[in-house]
């Protein structure tokens, strides 16, 4: 594997109330778990009026995932879409999308600042540094701010162990993937530390031109100044480079010809995040923290999705692009928690300041499209090759300073016995000072919003409870969208560039009710949620015939569904988990065209594309008494049918696949194997097409049956 040398800047970690909570155990009853994300402080599930799930250390350890989507997809109501080499998009109360409707957190702090969303942000995560994952479904903008609309995913890192620990191992599959991983830590006196690193390499995979290399290192240091005061730092550094193989056409997909049409597209990332937190407990009812943080991120790509080609124009000519998006963030967040005897009330209040300068440029490249032989009416491309690059022909070229400020507060109290009421609000102000080098314009834009939530939990008996919740969501347009030249303008078009200066923030209103039920001495658990969410000015991508994208933020959408999860543990040998969702995502009022000659004027009443009504993940695990330390499981992943285009002409049937996992612990050595796509099913993670009558589908192909093997050494010196 390639070596990488890390220079650590260990000056910070944002540590929230989970630092006071003991590390997650192998407890299987989710309803008894303590959650942090929904309230910014530790709270029981039955006291939290939102749909929230927790993936425990046991689940993470037994999954032995090569990519984090394998873990997150075990959450009811969540579909994290694999785009290959840890690239991804998400579907939580939304269609499968790359839009900025999800908030990704590390220990409660956003991975990206507001306005610089990246749907691939989780490829920077070190899977070997995860203690647990909390997933909130629906808007939590009133606590965490914009982009916390469809859902929020909080990745909680491992804290320093009390006793010295060390683990390391290797993992590989039959398609050229291999990973080395190591972690260790200890607490010595007042100082505790934990370090975790991974190095992944993919070569000569099942898809041509799909190599990648990823190296991550996480380091955390805790210093106990006194029993009531703590100083905690956490730093991550990661480098990532991947070929971007892209999608395949229908004929190649059906024949399992997994051949990339390009050998020049790529994505690379260089990320540093570091934080320093000072925590203090004033007394048993009062605590505060303040965190200073730094982000430094460089993202460059020649994206396969940026290739534009039309068979009706000049079928042998195409366009591509090269782009670079670099930003730094300097920020601070402070929070105070106060408990009162009156009505058992608790107030959480805080404020945030974030300054993020960003530079972005994108230029045009000329491509030759080498066509496949066949019917001219169904022409497809066999391969693209670069003819010329035009660094002076910019699609985007801007610098911007983003200033984010926010204040939030939430109160929970018991107005009557067995009833917990929660009310919260947050004000966000995002100011963008920009300098657009293409149209030589300078100026500023301001997006601000007050978001509100109110909810209640009622637990009339020990084995059942209910909740109701109203919450608002808010998502300003990403600045990359604002300063991107509209299709047919700028570059080599000869038409002056036009931009999306008038894109509006999207607003959401979410209503939901749900509950939980625990029977048979907690052996059988069930939870559910019914939600109804309306979006206004939702940022939608219109895929044009040449694969270019036009942005719109107008009209209304509706999202409604049922999420459910159940677990049954009849004995120590068996654990059965069932989870899924039924959802409908619909255009209510959305104008597609202003031209009277266009056959379709609007999308009113149509289903949104890439929006399966049914999806789910279930699993049966077996831990035999006759062979202690052996584990086995069979997992079922379901994705139902959905429309490929916005005008609802063609559907993709979806898929059912099965994964198998087995592992055995012998003394300090663990040996394991996973079989992904157990039946070797032909399927695609995503299928899409433009609205044109002769449009051809593109398939993001999924891997054939894959065998994963690994061995790990676990050492712990107990005092």
Automatic annotation (TrEMBL):
> Pfam families of this UniProt entry?
Plug (PF07715), TonB_dep_Rec_b-barrel (PF00593)
Keyword hit for Iron-sulfur: no
Where does this one sit in the cell? Cell outer membrane
Swiss-Prot/TrEMBL keywords:
Cell outer membrane, Ion transport, Iron, Iron transport, Membrane, Receptor, TonB box, Transmembrane, Transmembrane beta strand, Transport
Main localisation, per the record? membrane
Q: Which Gene3D superfamilies match?
A: TonB-dependent receptor, beta-barrel domain, TonB-dependent receptor, plug domain
Topology of this chain in the membrane: Multi-pass membrane protein
Domain TonB-dependent receptor plug, which positions?
Answer: 46-152
Name the SUPFAM superfamilies for this protein: Porins
Top-level taxonomic group? Bacteria
> TonB-dependent receptor-like beta-barrel domain: which residues?
226-678
**Record's InterPro entries?**
Beta-barrel_TonB, Beta-barrel_TonB_sf, Plug_dom, Plug_dom_sf, TonB-dep_rcpt-like
The UniProt entry's sequence similarity note says: Belongs to the TonB-dependent receptor family.
Note the PANTHER family from the entry.
FERRICHROME IRON RECEPTOR-RELATED, TONB-DEPENDENT OUTER MEMBRANE RECEPTOR
| Identification of the protein by name | TonB-dependent receptor
